[in-house]
Amino acid sequence: MEEVEVVVAHDERATLRVGDVFLKVDADRARTDVEVEAMAMAPIPTPEVLWRQPPVLALAAVRGTALGRLGEPSPASPAAWAAVGAAVRTLHDAPLPPWPGRSPDEIAARLDVECEWLVANGVLPIDLVTRNRHIAEAALRPWTPVFTHGDLQITHVFVDGDEVTGVIDWSEASRGDALFDLATLTLGHEEHLADVVAGYGTDVDLDVIRAWWSWRSLTAARWLVEHGFDPSAPGCEFDVLRSRM
């Protein structure tokens, strides 16, 4: 009998693995709707949808291994990181999804709220929050929307050798800023930024990518803490913020 592996579980959603099948349980049907439609539209490798019976979505496992994990050295080669950059460019060049993403004003408002929470609760020193908030503001400029994954963490990208075999977890996909995807992908792995940009194949504003590193690390902290994750672990979000000082 195959074992049931709990991949991730918190009060919003859970993912289980049974053999080569992933079962995603999400009470928010809208998130699952976005995930299924985004995977159908994306011009890059995605998991096969085996069946869907809300609130459960069954997906086939993708071949290969994750590009890496935040806080740990990536086992993937520079060529694999470049291949991921090329895949992301293919996604960004695709037709836009029909649903909108967040506006710069919404993103700025979230930054305000989360920075206030970090300071009010003594989670981080005020000078660290203030410095990174100033850096993050460079991301809050007009951009031309592209088809973005929206949560392109390295654990969501799978490679086999130098080949991209699958990108998972599309529930945050939307129209958005291309540099946000590139920043999420390279968060905590700045040493691979040049590889990704080389594969992406066009000039990008590195200061804006760094701004998104600060924005994501500041705005993710409360959710991570409240859902049992540790942004203060070595190499994770708080170290990313300290590296900007």
UniProtKB/TrEMBL annotation:
Pfam families: APH. GO terms for molecular function: kinase activity. Residues 37-202 form the Aminoglycoside phosphotransferase domain. Keywords: Kinase, Transferase. The keyword Transferase applies. The keyword S-adenosyl-L-methionine does not apply. This is Aminoglycoside phosphotransferase (APT) family kinase protein.
